[in-house]
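Dear H.,

Thanks for agreeing to be a second pair of eyes. The structure we're designing against is below in token form, covering all 608 positions.
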């Protein structure tokens, strides 16, 4: 989603803001802009396309002198991606300048009111309404005008605002969309996310809903929407700036795939103590865990796919019924929830709008919500009853890899913890589960060693038009994610099918040479999936299979086999997904695409 960076301080502001925006590129965007106060007035420059276009236009900020600036990368919602619709937006004479992330839901009513008062609009955006509404209320006191506007607008926003006649100040406000304030040696910052400002400061304030910040070059103050001053505690960011850099890899996605062994270790290891799974942050007693009668897993995208996997594990291992919902469906289908149900939401960013609403909906109905989240202090983390942090570190590539693996690991731990509390995992089984769990990072490492083999295979398929992924049970869930990875970064149409369902329609799409990826890791379902491989083979498909080492018999059916090490079948996703992530990655690289920034996609989807 959109990225915001603002700076006021001792140094030239534009280069700092542009550099910060570059660190937020991972959020996805289609245009960019910047406004700088040059000592006399506010100069605004903006352009559709990549940040490089804006950097060229401004000579990396050098031809925009000044010590305060706000910048923005826009992911279009209201109005097409264009120079005019790009932020910042201004009032009529350019003395009030606004950047915005979110959606002003009542912007049409406000726009009509302002048109009636003689205001004219240059763009199709909801954001421009804010600039004119600020103008309408502005009587020389910025804070007063901002609070009046915030009382009038409905929807979500993270805002950066400058007033030409208050050049020593920069303003920020938020509701629902994330925004942080940083306090550094040489100035103060606003940003949508920490990596944008980490080079300059680790002292960060997380703005709460409807909070306003006033930044000066050496101080920050906070206010409520009623202009009351508030006290806030700064948080010290303890992760390394290098964690947000590419570290020599061609793309963040490959770097993040290579981080998976560490990610899985970081998620699992601290939670295994003396042969037991200890999840302190769960805040639930054994009796509470025993009382759970149903689990609802709610998430979007890849996080949803971890939920599909978890359903097989939790139902299989614990015999607790599990419903898995895409968050945007859960919200509006009036789900049947009972007080003994537990809701588990999963989100890397912790900001996905539909998942956040699912948290609110569930809490409003009196249910306890457990969130599996990566981004610390994110909205979902803050609003849920308990938070299981995946500790995967910042994930920059839009297509998730390491956060997905961490979410799977989180589900394994939760399933084991629940199983112990409910008395369904005895000591012998516990020991074997933990052994298999703790072996995963090394096994993932081994699979990463097959990268050349997968690259070679991927190069043969860069011209593919359609690919089908098939599997049964957990193998079907693996296929869902393998297929999503491929289509989102290579733009090859691909579909995942429950292998047994294929003959009910999809098999008519198989033509000579069509690639079918068959996942066959589940011992109980292996023979069935092999039969499905035979079915597509006899229609001319080329079959690449992913199977457990030792299952040589699959070579009779499939054309090409990638083997994964032996593990507990419940954990197979963590291994089988690695070659599929690498396959998608190398197809995208082979096609010459910008792997980390697939077209039309956003890392963090903060609108519904
Ligand atoms: C976007 C991303 C996906 C991600 C989904 C859910 O669509 O492109 O990779 O799986 O959002 O994001 P979350 O941050 O809630 O896990």
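And this is the sequence the design step returned. I haven't edited it by hand at all.
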């Amino acid at each position: 989603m959109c990225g915001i960076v603002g700076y006021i301080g001792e140094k030239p502001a534009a280069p700092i803001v542009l550099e910060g925006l570059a660190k937020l590129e991972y959020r996805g965007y289609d245009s960019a802009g910047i406004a700088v106060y040059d000592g006399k007035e506010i100069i605004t420059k903006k352009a559709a396309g990549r940040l490089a276009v804006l950097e060229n236009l401004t000579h990396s900020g050098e031809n925009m002198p000044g010590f305060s600036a706000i910048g923005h990368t826009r992911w279009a919602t209201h109005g097409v991606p264009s120079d005019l619709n790009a932020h910042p937006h201004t009032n009529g004479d350019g003395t009030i300048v606004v950047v915005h992330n979110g959606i002003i839901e009542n912007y049409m009513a406000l726009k009509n009111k302002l048109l009636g008062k003689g205001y004219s609009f240059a763009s199709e955006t909801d954001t421009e309404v804010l600039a004119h509404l600020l103008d309408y209320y502005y009587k020389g006191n910025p804070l007063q005008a901002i609070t009046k506007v915030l009382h009038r607008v409905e929807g979500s926003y993270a805002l950066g605002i400058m007033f030409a006649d208050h050049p020593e100040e920069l303003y920020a406000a938020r509701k629902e969309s994330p925004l942080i304030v940083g306090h550094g040696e040489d100035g103060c910052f606003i940003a949508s996310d920490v990596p944008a400002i980490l080079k300059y400061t680790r002292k960060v304030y997380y703005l709460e809903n409807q909070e306003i910040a006033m930044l000066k070059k050496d101080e920050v103050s906070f206010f409520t929407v009623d202009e009351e001053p508030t006290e806030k505690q700064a948080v010290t960011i303890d992760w390394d700036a290098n964690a947000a850099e590419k570290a020599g890899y061609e793309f963040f996605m490959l770097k993040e795939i290579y981080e998976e062994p560490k990610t899985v270790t970081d998620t699992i290891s601290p939670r295994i103590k003396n042969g037991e799974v200890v999840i302190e942050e769960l805040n639930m007693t054994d009796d509470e865990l025993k009382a759970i009668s149903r689990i609802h897993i709610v998430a979007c995208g890849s996080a949803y796919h971890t939920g599909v996997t978890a359903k097989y594990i939790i139902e299989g291992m614990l015999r607790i019924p599990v419903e898995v919902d895409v968050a945007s469906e859960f919200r509006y289908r009036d789900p049947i929830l009972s007080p003994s149900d537990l809701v588990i939401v999963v989100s890397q960013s912790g900001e996905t709008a539909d998942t956040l609403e699912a948290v609110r909906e569930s809490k409003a109905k009196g249910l306890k919500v457990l969130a599996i989240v990566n981004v610390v202090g994110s909205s979902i983390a803050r609003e849920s009853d308990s938070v299981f942090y995946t500790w995967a570190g910042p994930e920059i590539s839009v297509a998730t890899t390491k956060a997905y693996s961490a979410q799977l690991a989180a589900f394994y731990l939760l399933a084991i913890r629940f199983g112990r509390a409910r008395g369904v995992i005895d000591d012998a089984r516990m020991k074997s589960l933990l052994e298999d769990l703790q072996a995963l990072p090394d096994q993932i490492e081994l699979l990463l060693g097959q990268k050349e083999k997968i690259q070679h295979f991927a190069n043969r398929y860069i011209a593919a038009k359609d690919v089908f992924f098939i599997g049964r049970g957990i193998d079907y869930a693996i296929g869902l994610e393998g297929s999503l990875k491929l289509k989102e970064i290579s733009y090859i149409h691909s579909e995942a099918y429950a292998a047994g369902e294929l003959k009910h329609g999809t098999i008519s799409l198989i033509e000579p040479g069509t690639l079918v990826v068959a996942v066959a890791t589940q011992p109980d379902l292996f023979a069935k999936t092999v039969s499905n491989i035979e079915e597509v083979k006899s229609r001319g498909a080329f079959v690449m299979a992913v199977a457990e080492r030792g299952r040589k018999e699959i070579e009779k059916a499939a054309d090409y086999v990638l083997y994964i090490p032996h593990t507990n079948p419940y954990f197979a996703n963590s291994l089988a997904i690695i070659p599929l992530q690498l396959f998608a990655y190398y197809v995208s690289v082979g096609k010459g695409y910008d792997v980390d920034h697939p077209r039309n996609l956003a890392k963090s989807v903060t609108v519904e």
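Two observations from my side: The chain has three domains: 3-238, 241-442, 449-592. Residues 300-303, 347-349, 352, 355, 398-400, 601, 603-605 surround 6-O-phosphono-alpha-D-glucopyranose (CB under 6 Å).

Warmly,
E.
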